[in-house]
UniProtKB/TrEMBL annotation, chains A, B:
The lineage of its organism: Bacteria, Bacillati, Actinomycetota, Actinomycetes, Pseudonocardiales. Residues 3-60 form the HTH lysR-type domain. It comes from Streptoalloteichus tenebrarius (strain ATCC 17920 / DSM 40477 / JCM 4838 / CBS 697.72 / NBRC 16177 / NCIMB 11028 / NRRL B-12390 / A12253. 1 / ISP 5477) (Streptomyces tenebrarius). Keywords: DNA-binding, Transcription, Transcription regulation. The keyword Cytoplasm does not apply. One of its GO terms (molecular function) is DNA binding. This is DNA-binding transcriptional regulator, LysR family. Belongs to the LysR transcriptional regulatory family. Gene3D superfamilies: Periplasmic binding protein-like II, Winged helix-like DNA-binding domain superfamily/Winged helix DNA-binding domain. Coiled coil: none annotated. The keyword Isomerase does not apply.
DNA sequence: TGCGTGTATAACCTTCTGGCATGGATGTGG
DNA sequence: CCACATCCATGCCAGAAGGTTATACACGCA
């Protein structure tokens, strides 16, 4: 009786959403594909998991039983996966470092150099993560340690140390009325369309839309992108504006886009993060120390 | 990162056998198929799990890590599967009963009738198991309770009550020199070719070859079968002889085959078995009581 | 040199999965 | 009362994946 973790993920999504249509959306597959997969899972087990109705899909008792156990199964698999990868990188003397585009920026060079001095036999494998994964691969076990920006979903399950903070600016298309101003109040941007991160990034998306600083007004979404390049294009083409760390003005300068300081939004925090299981990995800890020693002050307190 | 339990099973088989060729045999797939699957698993994880050599496949450190965790993952899945199916059958008021061909024989009718009286609202779903599964579906969660013969592999993980015992006889082709004898000593059969169960049935196969009563002499295998019909044909066609419970003489009588009593082999035990998790399932316990009350004596002690 | 024991590759077939378009059932609002 | 929105199910097609057989390649050994 062989099952794919994919089937379990699909099943859980339907169980949680209570409807094929919404679950399909969340999973980025078409609704007919989900219909077929769920039916196949039921056939495989020989058990009806849902009762169908016009209002959606409701779990049967048996479905409830499976839905209760599936999350632990998936988590156990993820855990085994992480540990396997960690063993591999340790055996090969490779430290896998994930980073978000424009996370630590110029500090990165210094950190790597310092780490190379401290661990001469080790190689550093830098991996840039897509924006859809604000943990930069840490959640999947793709990397041992990551340079990230706070806050992000799942942050509580990881160990985090803040390295420094940086003001958030706004990126505007060149011809925008506000583009000539030296400084902009955030409330002036409330009604602007924003270029946003995909919905599945949750708290991350909200943070860069600054929903907390809008006094309850919903943001307008002009476009959704998940890569730096798409993001820049969307802004340059006038689909919307976007908040970005100050350093983006240097690292993502491009004709057609201007960056301006914004008041009234909290600064962005750059941090180094690792998994609890790497707490006792001396190489990871060495890297963390190199981060702390090669970035400007406010990195005393854990976040 | 989606994985199939099949991939984990394949991986474990190769890890345990230390060679693709032998593992492929055990898994009943071709060696090239296994080669591809293992490579795919490695690509999926981005980790080398084995070092290849002419002498076989040796686990890497990372492979060792995964091999240590995989059995628990598979067991957890099997457990969830069993519980889900059990919930389903309980909700539908169906008791799924597995049985081996010729397990309880004539007693079966009485047991079912008694159970129907005790649990009027319930339906009994009888499922005959293939000989390749001496647990009659209990191990996979296909059934809630099973009528089996002892001993079988995995018996210790289940709850078992012996119902009665039955002498083992021998089934011979009609023209066989011993076919005219009233009674046969087992040592007279030591050099006969036997019709055996498939190798993967382990202790079950050994029991019906009576390897324990051969004083260390290896049995001769004349044919391997996994269905009653094949088994009867193999014997009738003279590929070998086979031990069988006395009742087979009634239930599997057929021209070309004679059954004769054998001395020097222990009797076969017929038992009812259930999983530890069904220990508190009152319906299963009712069925067990019906078994005990509708079979001849020696069912006082748990086996 | 030929054989046995390993793994890898090639060519081919079948099954599975996903996407799109569409159908059927059932409420809901103008 | 009809048009529309919201569900899930079905049919059809393309591409990917798993399986099989035949064969290649590497090596130790008689």
């Amino acid at each position: 009786m062989d099952v794919d973790t994919r089937l379990l993920r699909y099943f859980l999504a339907v169980a949680q959403e209570g409807a094929l249509t919404r679950a399909a959306e969340r999973l980025h597959v078409s609704q007919p594909a989900l219909t077929k997969q769920i039916r196949q899972l039921e056939n495989l087990l020989g058990v009806r998991l849902f009762v169908r109705s016009r209002t959606g899909m409701a779990l049967t008792e048996a479905g409830r039983t499976l839905a209760d156990r599936a999350p632990a199964l998936l988590a156990a698999w993820e855990q085994a996966l992480r540990e396997t990868r960690e063993t591999a990188s340790r055996a090969a003397r490779v430290l896998r470092v994930g980073f978000l585009a424009s996370a630590a920026n110029e500090a990165t060079q210094r950190i790597i150099a310092a780490f190379s001095l401290r661990r001469p036999g080790w190689r550093v494998d830098m991996r840039q993560a897509a924006w859809t994964d604000p943990t930069a691969g840490l959640a999947d076990g793709e990397v041992d340690v990551a340079l990230v920006r706070l806050p992000f979903p799942g942050q509580d399950a990881l160990r985090v140390r803040v390295l420094f903070t940086e003001p958030r600016w706004v990126a505007l298309p060149e011809g925008h009325p506000l583009a000539t101003r030296d400084q902009i109040r955030f409330d002036e941007l409330w009604d602007e369309p924003f270029v946003a991160a995909p919905a599945e990034t949750g708290a991350w998306r909200d943070y860069w839309l600054a929903t907390g600083e809008r006094r309850g007004r919903a943001p307008r979404i002009g476009a959704v992108t998940d890569q730096p390049d798409d993001w820049l294009n969307a802004i340059a083409n006038g689909y919307g504006v976007a908040l970005a760390p100050e350093s983006a003005a240097r690292f993502y300068a491009r004709p057609g886009i201007v960056y301006r300081p914004v008041t009234g939004v909290s600064p962005s925090q750059v941090a180094v993060a690792w998994t609890p299981s790497a707490q006792n990995n001396p190489v990871v800890q060495d890297f963390v120390h190199c981060c702390l020693e090669n970035t400007p002050p406010p990195h005393d307190q854990p976040a």
